[in-house]
Every structure is written in structure tokens, then in C-alpha cells.
Write a structure and sequence with these properties.
Blueprint (H helix, E strand, L loop, with lengths): L4 E2 L2 H11 L9 E10 L3 E7 L10 E2 L2 E3 L11 E2 L3 H8 L3 H19 L4 E2 L12 H11 L5 H8 L2 E3 L4 E7 L8 E9 L13 E7 L1 H9 L7 H10 L5 H6 L6 E2 L2 E5 L2 E5 L1
Parallel strand pairs: 2-10, 6-8, 9-12
Antiparallel strand pairs: 1-14, 2-3, 2-5, 3-4, 3-11, 7-8, 9-10, 13-14
Helix pairs in contact: 2-3, 3-4, 6-7
């Protein structure tokens, strides 16, 4: 993407308006994305429905916007503190708390994988029963708060099962924007993902290099942050190597530039 992606038509005109100060960009909402890993290494990808307003048809990792209740101090917590996460992601403590909670909540909502356990050294072994499914649906429709979900089941969020990976902000030219922190996490032993529907119409486990190859062939669509993340992961031979990787979190926001009468999106 370093050479730029052309922005024709409406996006090009919107970019010109933003560059000229005639249009103000939409504020970016805080969001979290989690790359679930299993040996291979493979990653869990969802294909967003073609009817979705954002990233329609794209293969993405589980994730979504921070719910205001994700910042609730009553969320039972084990592992690095919100303050420590804030230092990693260069964010305020409240924001960091919401990001980590959103990461765990959205992962459960979109894959059935729950990074939580009865104590700081344990993790839930199975989340496939009807009662778990009822809670998952209640979290999605926001009739159940994440803090209440954990409390009712006697669970604590395991922030130590997450590893920070990246920070992407949607370009200003987009009508819907997110300020997204990327995490990686290993699939907990005993748990398994499932096709839970919702915003996705297909789910797959894929080796990162294979996903990139399919994108090059035009068989799947990957957004730049997903593509870049997969490219980075493809350099590792196993999950342990990924989780041990040293990462400096640098904010990336592709920007529109005009060159020779044409508008390009570049990093």
C-alpha cells in the first residue's frame, strides 16, 4: 500500500473536500480486533456479509466497537492492568480498559471463544452449550452487560491471554471510521470456534500466507490492516513465536494525497 491506492469517483472528491477543509472527517470510534491463533499457525477469519455498511464482503478478524459499559470498573479482571495496557497503546486508562474488555467480549460474540476463567490461572474449557449461546446473543443485543455476564458465571477477564499487535485508524475519507487496536491470542485449550452467524456469512481457519495468496488471486478481499497483519504473522512458524514477538505499537492511519491531479490513499 506504500505506493498508494487510487481513490476515484466519490471517494476522490470527498478526499479533495477534506484536504481543502470543506468537509470535516467523521470521528473515529474506539474499537478492538483479536487475531485468534491455533497451531499451523492458522488464524480465524470471518467474511462480513455483503449487506454490511462497513467492509462488506471482506475477510476480517473478530472485533468491534467499544461499548460504553466496557469501561465499567466492576468487570472482574486478571492480568496486566488497564493502566499497563494504556501505556502499551498510548491511551488513557479508561480507554484501555474499554479496549481490552471489547476485545474479549467481541471475540466471544463473533467466535464463541472466551478469554476468561474462574481464576487468574484458569480458562473456561467449553462454551458451546445452549446457556452459553443465550448469553452470547444477549451480549450482542446489549441486553446483557459484559460485567454482569462475567459476574453471574463467576469468571474473570484474562487480559494476560491477549498480546498487543498493532494500531490502525480508518482513513479520514471513509464515512464510517474506527480507531482500532489489534490483539493476538491463542485459542484456549478445550475451546473451539463455531460459525455463530451475525455479521458474518462464512468463517475459516487459514494459514496467513495462504490467505494472502488467495487475496492476490482475487478469491478473497482483505482490507489493508488485515493484509498487513497477515503478512507479519506469515513470518512466524508457530503460535509460540507469534506470542513471543516484540512489538512496538505505532499508529497507522492511511492518508489521502493528491499527485498530478489524481487522489491516492497511502501510508
Amino acid at each position: 500500500m506504500d505506493n498508494g491506492i487510487p481513490l476515484p469517483g466519490e471517494f476522490g472528491e470527498r478526499a479533495r473536500d477534506i484536504l481543502a477543509g470543506r468537509v470535516q472527517p467523521v470521528p473515529a470510534r474506539d474499537a478492538a480486533t483479536v487475531v485468534i491463533l491455533r497451531e499451523g499457525p492458522q488464524v480465524y477469519l470471518l467474511r462480513r456479509k455483503a449487506t454490511m455498511a462497513f467492509a462488506a464482503g471482506a475477510y476480517v478478524f473478530p472485533g468491534g466497537s467499544v461499548d460504553p459499559r466496557d469501561t465499567d470498573h466492576s468487570v472482574a479482571w486478571a492480568g496486566p492492568s488497564p493502566k499497563e495496557w494504556g501505556e502499551v497503546f498510548h491511551a488513557e486508562e479508561k480507554t484501555a480498559r474499554g479496549l481490552v474488555c471489547a476485545a474479549v467480549r467481541e471475540t466471544f460474540e463473533e467466535s464463541g471463544v472466551l478469554l476468561a476463567g474462574p481464576g487468574p490461572d484458569t480458562v473456561v474449557a467449553d462454551t458451546t452449550g445452549d446457556d452459553w449461546e443465550a448469553d452470547r446473543i444477549a451480549l450482542i443485543d446489549r441486553s446483557l452487560a459484559f460485567a454482569d455476564f462475567l459476574d453471574r458465571r463467576g469468571l474473570v477477564l484474562r487480559s494476560d491471554l491477549l498480546k498487543p499487535w498493532a494500531h490502525w485508524i480508518t482513513p479520514e475519507v471513509e464515512h464510517k471510521r474506527f480507531d482500532t487496536r489489534f490483539f493476538v491470542a491463542a485459542l484456549p485449550e478445550g475451546q473451539r470456534t463455531r460459525d455463530v452467524g451475525g455479521e458474518a456469512d462464512k468463517v475459516v481457519w487459514q494459514r496467513p500466507a495462504e490467505a494472502i495468496e488467495l487475496a492476490h488471486k482475487g478469491e478473497i478481499f482483505l482490507m489493508p490492516p488485515t493484509y498487513r497483519t497477515l503478512a507479519e504473522l506469515s513470518g512466524h512458524d508457530d503460535v509460540e513465536s507469534i506470542l513471543a514477538a516484540e512489538r512496538e505499537i505505532v499508529t497507522i492511519m492511511p492518508r489521502a494525497v493528491e499527485r498530478d491531479g489524481k487522489v491516492w490513499l497511502t501510508t
